[in-house]
Amino acid sequence: MIITDPLQIDGAEISWFAPLCDGDDDFLGNRNPDYKSSWENTSKIVKTADALGYRNVLCPSSYQVGQDTLAFVAGMAPLTEQINLLAAIRCGEVHPPMLARSIATLDHMLKGRLTINIISSDLPGTTLASTERYARSREVIEILKQAWTQDEIDFQGKYYHYKLPTAPIKPYQQNGGPLLYFGGYSPAGVDLCAEHCDVYLMWPETEEKLQGLMENMTKKAAAYNRTVQFGLRVHVIVRETEAEARDYADALLSKLNLDLGNDIRNRAQDAASLGVARQSQLREEADESYYVEPNLWTGIGLARSGCGAALVGDPDQIVAKLQRYMDMGIRSFILSGYPHQQECELFAKLVLPRLKTVSLPEVFGRIPKTTPNTPLGNGKRY
């Protein structure tokens, strides 16, 4: 099956990662306090990514460790100029009408440089079946869309019941508001993305397995008369030579206590998810050096939950690998490395100038040509 791109995107969204959740280190599992998640450290990484030409930056969410995502994004709004911010939202954590207002406010602060990553994990201290979590997320998304595009929220669901005017919560972005990114592997999650979201984010897999995920999502979205773009969240280690890159990958594990690595992986809210299980399976399929296919190294998953593999190689190899992904139909890449500041700079020096990059909100037509004087329901304006 060929993955078609109705938007005919020429290039890809190349993004970096803001380690809000205490996930930065010089050696995996080392817990160096110099890399602790803090406003100073993380804001520096985002400002660097902005200055170097990355098009978006994922700002993740976690309860156990890290900083508040929406507060961090708000703080970065006046400190960045070009880069979009991809704010992770845990559905159910915030009263949906107030969440719609918060997102719309951020969107105006950023002049449309806001994208949203929909998260359906259990909320801290709660346990809900997967199908129930995705059902709750579906209701949150439908309420957000009503708030952003209609004069009234009129919603009667299992979890939420509202009949409210939508002023003053119209976003800066037009044609539906901020783009919704989504990652999930269960049937309920795939169906939610197919019906409501714009970009389906995948974690590293072999190219064959990625193609299968994309084909399934394309079919599911077509059943809703929709198309979905595809993204890949993956780490990267690039050096002048492949030998240097592989040596650096090995060095990242040189101080790892495997028991500590297991503890780090298991502390996350989503540690038991299907996606995390697939990352573990990928590592089991790898060779003795943790490579599951050329230039795809799974060793990084020994010390972290979630995305558990990295692209490793010289600049030509990394460009070629990314181009293969783009030929498959992937148009968004969320990259990261250890430590994040150093690897952000290295990738920008060795690879980024060789890639044609795009801003997906602009491609989707969400950014107005001129600054809107957005009317609110009560006649007032921002």
Q: Can you walk me through this structure?
A:
By secondary structure, the chain is α/β, with parallel strands linked by helices. Helices cover 37% and strands 17% of the residues. A hairpin with a 2-residue loop joins strand 10 and strand 11.
Keywords:
single chain, 382 residues, alpha/beta, eight-stranded parallel beta barrel, two-stranded antiparallel ribbon, 13 strands, disordered C terminus
Extract low-pLDDT stretches: 371-382
The whole-number mean of residue pLDDT values reads 90
Largest beta sheet: what is the strand line-up?
1-2-3-4-7-8-9-13
The helix content, as a percent range, equals 25-40%
The dominant shape is globular
Q: Nutshell version of this structure?
A:
With 382 residues, the protein is α/β, with parallel strands linked by helices. It is 37% helix and 17% strand. The model is unreliable at 371-382 (pLDDT under 50).
How is the secondary structure organized here?
Layout: E1 13-17, H1 39-52, E2 56-59, H2 69-76, E3 84-90, H3 96-109, E4 114-119, H4 130-149, E5 152-156, E6 161-165, E7 180-182, H5 187-196, E8 199-202, H6 207-223, E9 229-238, H7 242-252, H8 258-266, H9 274-284, E10 291-293, E11 296-297, E12 310-313, H10 315-328, E13 330-336, H11 340-350, H12 360-363
Parallel strand pairs: 1-2, 1-13, 2-3, 3-4, 4-7, 7-8, 8-9, 9-12, 9-13
Antiparallel strand pairs: 5-6, 10-11, 11-12
